[in-house]
Amino acid sequence: MTIRGRAHVVGHHVDTDVIIPARYLVTVEPAELAKHAFEDLDPTLRDRIGQGDILIAGENFGQGSSREHAPLAIKACGIGCIVAASFGRLFYRNALNIGLLVVECPEAISHAVAGTEATVDLGSSRLTVGGRHFPIPCSC
Known about the structure:
Blueprint: E1 2-9, H1 16-19, H2 30-34, H3 45-48, E2 54-57, H4 69-77, E3 81-84, H5 89-98, E4 101-104, E5 117-121, E6 126-129, E7 132-135
Parallel strand pairs: 1-2, 2-3, 3-4
Antiparallel strand pairs: 1-5, 5-6, 6-7
């Protein structure tokens, strides 16, 4: 499986409260959650995300609460894969449980440029971002 899309870059330690602010947790409807994804981090990010795009993040992405709302909101935005240096363990498990692809690649954040093409090729266990290729671990 290969996922290709535009790269959207966020920093380190992006917590679940920034992914989907607590004031919107009155629903579990993915489409409604998606309308408010990343609102407090970057109000324009949600509108720039296209179907299949790749979110590239730094260390400890998704740290914080165990709420499933955060990966639901991201998936409903159209993100095809999240590549991060590392993930909060509860977020990681929740993402897998809802079918949101998450891949750890610590080198990606330093070479990612927002808006450029990124490719996650699971068949060859390789990430391409910023014109560079990186191995991604197989967690099979």
